[in-house]
Please model this.
Amino acid sequence: MRLMSVEEIEFEALKLDPKARARLAERLLVSLDDLSESENMQLWADEAQSRDAQMDSDPGSARAAEDVFSEARSRLK
Model:
């Protein structure tokens, strides 16, 4: 049996009904609580490097923080 890629898992998970997606999201978030401090720090470092590489490859993709926060606030209303 072949293992699914992360992209395939995401694709399949998005087909779930909202209640099942919420349950899956909660279980995934709770699983992150079990990470050691060094694992957690490595994840943050990897994410920072990924975002830095994205900015280097496409500087036009940047958005002002105020625009991001404004959009987030309007979505929460």
Notes: The two ends are 45 Å apart (CA to CA). The chain has one domain: 6-76.
